[in-house]
Request: fold
Amino acid sequence: MEPAVLVVGAGPVGLTMALELTRFGIPVRIIDKAAARTDKSKALVLWSRTLELMDRGGHSQAFVDAGFKVTAANIYAGARQVAHVRLDELQTPHPYALMLPQSDTERLLEAQLNARGVKIERQVELTRFVADTDQITATLQSADGREETLTVPWLIGCDGAHSAVRHGLGMEFVGNTMLSDWILADVHLHGLTDNANEVNTFWHADGALALFPISPGRYRVIADVGDALTGQRRPDPTLEEVQAVLDQRGPGGLVVSSPIWLASFRINERKVADYRAGRVFLAGDAAHIHSPAGGQGMNTGMQDAFNLSWKLALVHHGLVSDEPLLESYNIERSAVGQQVLIDAGRLTALATLRSSAWQQLRNHVASFAFGMSAVRQTMATKLTELSIGYPHSPLTIVGKHGHAKPAAGERVPISSSSTLTTQGATPRFVLYAARDPQSADVIGRHSKVLEPALRPPFDEDHIWLARPDGYVATVVAKGEWDQVDRYLSLICGQ
Reply:
């Protein structure tokens, strides 16, 4: 079968994109210029919302089985704990941060993609492409120099911060590089007795230190180590340098050993203005890169893939018109990417304050703020990405029932006992409503894009229409089936 989509890049975002498109019955090719997947831990965490979206395809369990669950995060200033944020009280089937090295995430995604009959074409590079109104003509080059010309309807760049697809579009990657050096160490660590299985961040007068548990006894250590010298890359740290930072900023008594990965890095914060150019799309680091504070980068990219795949599937299968569905991808995900940039930048700035006066003020305000349950709840839902929504999307109609919860644009809440899985090759909208004679008429009229069964409403006075990715499209009063019919007719271009 001829491919309909060429996915460039086989990291977590590209693999997720290819897996979702394949699930929805779209033939894909996925290429990567690297000879093998990464062997580094890199991005460590899968957040609750990402796991919920993986649930919908029925392929989250392998990741949960392989990962390490973390249910809280702490911030310390000196010997004083200023924040303790619990995740295990959230209303989700996955009330935790799932710690899993990126190498394992890629391995599991690739295995599931292979099970669907799709193989990654490695050491294959996109060298150029021409985007016309009805197709993409791409030139691919193998490691031995052979070239191939491929024509596909759609091209998706998931090829990272140095994206060939983004360069081919001539898009500006707007932002900056922070002028500070950071070290990263994936090591074994002994001596952490308090909150050993939680994320621990230490605000020290000389900088920040963060410890992320990967598995029992193994941790990711991250710390800023001073202003960067322009144009000079800092050498990777030695184990002795990592130990010195722990001795200076940690709680005391910590000993590192058996390093798995030591690296230095600088933080880039960049983003394109538009994630779409006609039949070409960007996702993940090709479209946005962030500070690692909060661990949102990989998850944001994977959620780009979940967002685009169902929309492209409905268009590919001829069930909806291209607009506004495909244009909503950029509107929705660009807004999310911008907010992640802002939030991660703020967290980084707070953690790396240099002035002792500002540090004291930060510590005082943080201790007061995190003493309030509402602040802790907000932080938990932001970290886990459960708070992400699309209230300003062209696919969201708020109407006169904006008081109903969940509101239009918000995530449909999922309890551990009611995990929602979208079955079949066609993405479908879902109705949360009481059954009545009119419901059968609407479901029948839009049977190609609506699940055939109604789900119990969140209250008896309203009808909720949810998108295939589990966000509320619109809320109307009980009995207003004409409004549901009108929404689906508009989306489907009828």
